[in-house]
Amino acid sequence: MKAKARLTKLLIFISSLLPLSWYVWGILTEKLGANPIETITRGLGTWALIFLLLTLTTTPLQRLAKWHWPVANRRMIGLFASFYACLHFMAYIWLDQFFDWPAIGKDIFKRPFITVGIMTLLLLLPLAITSSTYAVVTLGAKRWKKLHRLIYLISVMACIHYFWMVKADTREPVIYSSILFLLLSTRVFWLYRKIIRPTTR
Amino acid sequence: MRHMKDTDIPSSEITPQRLYNARRDFLTTSAGLTLAGLLPNTHAKLPAGKVSSFSTTEGLTPFKHVTGYNNFYEFGTNKDDPAIHAQKMRIAPWQILIDGLVKKPKTLGFEDILKLAPLEERIYRLRCVEGWSMVIPWLGFPLSVLLKQVAPLGSAKYIEFFTAVQPDTMPGVSRQVLDWPYVEGLRLDEALHPLTITAVGLYGELLPKQNGAPVRIVTPWKYGFKSGKSIVRLRFTEQMPQTSWMKANTTEYGFYSNVNPAVDHPRWSQTTERRIGEFLKRKTLPFNGYEKQVAHLYTGMDLRKYF
Known about the structure:
The complex is a heterodimer.
Chain A: H1 3-28, H2 36-65, H3 69-72, H4 74-96, H5 101-110, H6 112-129, H7 133-139, H8 141-148, H9 150-165, H10 171-196
Helix pairs in contact in A: 1-2, 1-4, 2-4, 2-9, 2-10, 4-6, 5-6, 6-9, 7-8, 9-10
Chain B: H1 16-29, H2 33-38, E1 50-51, H3 63-66, H4 81-85, E2 95-100, E3 106-109, H5 110-115, E4 120-127, E5 132-142, H6 143-147, E6 158-163, E7 183-187, H7 188-192, E8 197-202, E9 205-206, E10 216-218, E11 231-237, H8 244-248, E12 272-275, E13 282-283, H9 291-294
Parallel strand pairs in B: 1-4, 2-11, 5-12
Antiparallel strand pairs in B: 2-3, 4-5, 5-8, 6-7, 6-11, 8-9, 8-10, 12-13
């Protein structure tokens, strides 16, 4: 790997850890407000969604802006999405519910936004597990690609999870969903072009 | 968010009661500097209210959380929005119109309201429908005192209250998150119950704007959103009022909204709550712990149906 590419990777890695560092710093200095547990739980969820959207932005950046470094780091960005999603889940289980399993079970089955949230996480985990080059080889590139297309569904579910969580003000989920819509539209457009004019690139 | 002095000890290291006292000392020594920002042209500190027997002895939620973590959607839907944006709200002069099914409607100014009854300190639990709670030392007097200023007609069954709408000072009302003005209501017997108060202050001073200055309602056995803030109108009605939250989501918000661990909100379990400042959740009590005082208001009613 060239030095420049390695530096890019390192910079992305460090910046991806900044949100987590902020929450750790916030806990230590009591800067997370009156309800720090809520701030952490929700914040980690938002960051998981942001990283999902960033993962989906890499391809359009390559095709439209001819930037190659985002795609080159897509695997890591995607892994950070899973990382924040797991932390989000852990914050819920540990900080919010403090391992009150009956309450957690009831939540999962009775509250639609939590049901969707858990399903989203369960779909995301196989992608994280099969992120290694070894997994690509074992599964075969074709099957691996098919599996990892799940990210489209996962992102939509993550947005639904957000929509169903908010009480009345849907502004933030609307913003994230609009970005997702835009990102997915590029795929639909490319797919359409591929089917209609398969020879043109 | 409004902060206390840098020298202030972190809230986690002292008991809320001590913080309260510290706050009081702070107020008396700072020559009203802090309060000048809260209320430009009125006296800020209120006479110490006589302690009510309805008060709880539980530890108080620190002032900074009571005044920094608020739901007041007129100023935005984030918890810190009210503390940031509410300071421009005009609260003087302030008038409350009492009308509807009354012999003669009446308009009362804030100064008149202050003179209606001696202020009492009511230390109440406040339970939000979102699953968190606080303990707040309110200053006020029974709402019944205010309602008795007019002669309601026999047909009056409910009281509907309206929060102010000031589009130029309330950034939140430009978006239809809720149907403005914010409307809440109580059955007349609930409104006349001695636990229901008209609050004009907290922590020994006039209500901060983010807490619903200058006059708000507090019904401690109901979820927080029932306690309307910055009240400009009280209307006696025969029909059950359609509240803003009922209009926003009929299946999730009912008229009564009594704190009830047995009836879940579709999005939150109501069996437990997090007291602000505490790590572990605690059990939510029926009627927020005021069962003895208010349960009789609902005898024979199916509280699952009338949630």
